[in-house]
Amino acid sequence: MIAVGWHGRRGLLVLTNAGHPPPFWYRAAPNEWSWFETARPGERGRKAGTPLGLLADIDYDRIIVKPKIGDLVVLYSDGVSEATNPAGEELGRDALMNIARGLDHGTAVAFGSQLSAALRSFRAGVEPMDDETLIVLQRVGPVS
Predict the structure, then answer these.
(1) In which order are the strands placed within the sheet that holds 2-7?
(2) Residue-wise pLDDT tens digits, 96-108
(3) Helices (H) and strands (E) in the chain, counts
(4) Helix (H, G, I), strand (E, B) or coil at 123
(5) Which of 77, 39, 78, 30 is nearest to 59 (CA)?
(6) What is the pLDDT of residues 111-131, one digit of tens each?
(7) Which of 77, 86, 123, 129 is the 20 to 30 A CA-CA neighbour of 141?
């Protein structure tokens, strides 16, 4: 599970990850893509990324960011990064990010549609083995 909250007055996005693949984001101003990741388990002395409900007494790290106008945040299920092509090769998260870098990031709708099409193209007719869920969020300016 990944939980996402939005604090409209402050413009803060809060992400809490319980075993889901790490979301990634496009920062429009510097024209950069990056992952939302927390410290690895050995770097902080406790387990990380544990699926929700698997172990008792697990704390989940929160990531708090302040997206700027035009930024995109992409959440996806493991069925997306684990999609396979006809040769049996898995897409993987690095290839997913490389695909994202080549798409139109002007709107969440355009980006999401193009990413879905690119995923289908990668699979080239191979049926999904798992759900393939994509959620694309975009910070937009004030509504007038």
Answers:
(1) 2-7, 12-17, 62-65
(2) 999 999 999 999 9
(3) 4, 7
(4) helix
(5) 39
(6) 999 999 999 999 999 999 888
(7) 77
